[in-house]
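tool_call: predict_structure(chain=1)
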Amino acid sequence: MDVSLFLYNLIKAMAMRRTRLRSIRRVPRSEILALQRRRLAHLLEYAAKTSSFYRRRWNARVPQPEDLSRLEPLDKTTLIEHYDEVLSVKDLSLDDTRKWLNGKQDAQPKKYIFAATSGTTGQPLVIPYRLNEWREGMAYIIRSAELAIEGTWGRGSDPLSLLYLMRKRPRIAGVSTLNPIHVSARLTRSFRAGIVPSLLLSAGTPLEQQLEELNRFKPTVLGGYPSAIAPLVKAAEKNKLHISPELIVTGGETVSQALRRLVRKVWGLELFDYYGLAETLVIAGECRRHQGLHIYEDAVVLEVVDEQGKPLPPGKTGHSVLLTCLFNKTLPVIRYDVGDILSVNEEPCACGTPLKRIVSLEGRKDELLVLRRKNGQPVEVHPIVFESALLGMAEIRQFQIDVLAGEKVRITIVPHGHAGDTVPKALSALSEALSPLGIGEDVLQIRTATGIKSRRGPTDKLLLRT
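tool_result:
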């Protein structure tokens, strides 16, 4: 797609946000739920008529919205195996997407935009969007950004209008992936469109090179994977990164409270986190109150479920989460098993947005480490436990967590200057973090290094397992 088409899509998305989506903060929750129900009913009817997979799965019956929780979930393996049948269109196929993944750009017809998953947990999956569906996803993302910048940019004006953006000229830097097939790179390219100065770096680029480019570019908005933002904040803490950002945003990985505290300490800012997938583009995002991530219920249906796939009440942490995308009818994903561990709250947020919120987002099941307690019993631990213990240590410049065979965890530390007592301090901090879980320090192997070549997947997301 050329720049002119990207700009056209961006203008259309901004227009959609202004006319159809922007009023969501001014309507009662009952209207949002009614809209969600109407859109869900339309999606179910559309899928039953146009997708041979759903028509067979539902025995040629059109489910009603109240039937959703009783429908069989859809996992990634099944979606790939039956990809062509799930598609609601006849001019696309799984073979087309694989050709596109392998660099054959004309395998993507002009009336579609393809976006790929990261593939860190298996083979990448390509999600096709019609142009109007892609623009709608962009519109939801623009609206979510408005919740973050409200009150800081353009008081009394529309901070996300083209005219305001062209006048303010924010300088936007992202540290995630340069892989052109991944959804984050596709969206970044869609939003750049030549309107604002922007810089996109790979999270796998050596830290010194990242610092050099960011110091030269001087971004006012900095975003990226949490694992990429953390060493940048640490560098700023040691006066090696000389930028004055006005907004920090993260996505693509689980963000820790330790990183939030560090951003607040170093830059005096609150970090804004966003939650999305290639399969749905957008799911939830934070507002200025930071009381959880607002779920965009007019765009998706999110179900927190137990091990049997049955929905759990608000406040309960689930075994997984099932997502239904209400605006992508090209490849309908209905009750799609994401594997994330989270809980939601339906109480009103202080910001006034009548959307329920994700109040605990613990990451994906496949990210959990299985370690042994002192009594020999297995326990699941998220890597954030280790990250939270180490991010607050000023003596540490960088660190890397590796899962080894035999239920051991190796921590590689790059100290600032001489190692000194950095290792004993790190061991103490980690032991304190693991003690409430009944885990002893015998599971840890700590070593120092002068630098780290982080292992990242095809879209530069951090990999833990060796």
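agent: The domain at 3-362 is CATH 3.40.50.12780 (Rossmann fold). Proceeding to next step.
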